[in-house]
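Changelog-adjacent note: as of this version, every example in the card shows the full chain rather than a window. The one below runs 54 residues end to end.
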Amino acid sequence: IREGKAFKQPEDDGMAGIVTLNKRMASDPRLVSLVLPMDDDYTDGFAVAVVKQQ
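Full-length structure tokens:
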């Protein structure tokens, strides 16, 4: 998403929240998460996370 910027060091304040959320979801062992692009240019998308059953 956003040419990989959604997981890299944020270049501006607008990306900082997205990067933080994506890193938290990816590193939380309680979650199964997925980030999907929504357009051909990979500039927009959404994230989904589900809490694993205990």
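Structural remarks: Helices lie at 13-27.
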